Amino acid sequence: MSFKELLKFLKLPLKAYKVKENIRMRYIRFLKTLNPSQAILAALAIVICFLMLWFVSLRVGKPLTRSICIAAMSTDRSVDREQRVRVIEAQTVNLGTVSRRINTVGHLRANAMVVIKSELSGRIAEILFTEGGNVKKGDLIIRFEDAEYKAAVQIAEGELEHAKSSFERIAKLHAQKAASDKQLGEESARLKMTEGKLLQAKANLEKANIRAPFDGAIGIINISSGAFVQGATELVTIVDNKAVKVTFKVPEKNIHDVGAGQVVEVKVSAFKDQVFTGMIEAVDAKVEQESHSIQVKGVIPNPDNLLRDGLFANVSLIVGEKGNAMTVDESSVDRIGEIEYVWVVERGRAEKRRVLTGARENGQVEIVAGLQPGQIVVTSGQIKLSDGAKVKISNMPDPSVKIML
């Protein structure tokens, strides 16, 4: 580095800091009096000063400034938390009656359902129903070609007439001692055989005409008129959904709590907000060894045909009532893992309180432990609450109830 460059370096403090003009001129005159060795010493002194300033600002100034800011912010936050009033809604813990229930799951079954099958092998002549519609008991729904069966009936009727005449003739001769007992017996047996043939022919003719066994909704058929089907071929399904049956299981410990005539409530995912009410129809006579439970069947009216066979159901069986139970609104109860808690208002401040809950019914939750009747619990606005926070209850205008701040 030349002497001129060194002098330029020594002028850096003038650019880094705003210096008054008289001081600037004195500093420049001072630099002009320096010889090269003195200029080198001055440059080293300036470098050392810059390093010391950098170290102090990094190690001392920054943490100190940060600590001061944090302390100020913490003070502001504590003051803000101490002075801010949270507006909430609340209710008092009430005493009431709650239902004792057994909650489980089950499946819905139609009141009656049958899969229509062909009893004979033959060709379908006519389909007489509308797919997806309703049918009445005894309605003709499928007709097979029946000329062969009608002919068999006529033949059997002719044979029966002949057998009757022959039997009557032999019977008269037997009465006159002109025919033996053996002849009379043979004619009697022949008469019975022809009567049986006629009944069989008529039955076959009846099987060629399929009728609805009960009132219900008929499904979809995948076979067309003119198709030839074998015996036992599945043709169509008929379902009676005017009432549905719900089957479910309850633990063996509740066997004495369940009986015919009790009320059962059912919910299905297709109608989440609707409760279907029915009655217990039957309780199984045995306990299943594998599951240690007993099967129960209930019947639910279905006049609007909303419930269908095969639906999965959430079942609630009412087995009794419990009086003097503490209840709060469902919105009051929060959960962290397995721990349930509520926010209680005392002396104008919020306090978190752990509770044990019981039955749930109509938006109310039974409190088994953790609260006392008449206490005030928060129902809305608890998201931003903290222990000790000041609160103002907006939905309790009564001065005797409203917390005075």
Write the layout of secondary structure elements.
Blueprint: H1 3-10, H2 12-16, H3 21-32, H4 36-83, E1 85-92, E2 94-117, E3 122-127, E4 134-135, E5 140-144, H5 147-175, H6 181-207, E6 209-211, E7 216-218, E8 228-229, E9 234-251, E10 263-268, E11 271-283, E12 293-301, E13 312-329, E14 334-336, E15 339-346, E16 349-361, E17 364-369, E18 376-380, E19 390-393
Parallel strand pairs: 1-19
Antiparallel strand pairs: 1-18, 2-9, 2-13, 3-5, 3-8, 4-7, 5-6, 7-9, 9-12, 10-11, 10-13, 11-12, 13-17, 14-15, 15-16, 15-18, 16-17
Describe this structure in words.
With 405 residues, the chain is an alpha+beta fold. The chain has 4 domains: 3-81, no CATH class; 84-98 and 323-393, conserved putative lor/sdh protein from methanococcus maripaludis s2 fold; 102-108 and 238-322, Elongation Factor Tu (Ef-tu), domain 3 (Beta Barrel), CATH 2.40.30.170; 114-234, Helix Hairpins (Orthogonal Bundle), CATH 1.10.287. It has 6 helices and 19 strands. The protein has a 6-stranded antiparallel beta barrel. The chain starts with a helix and ends in a 12-residue tail after the last strand. Residues 78-82 and 398-405 have low confidence and may be disordered.
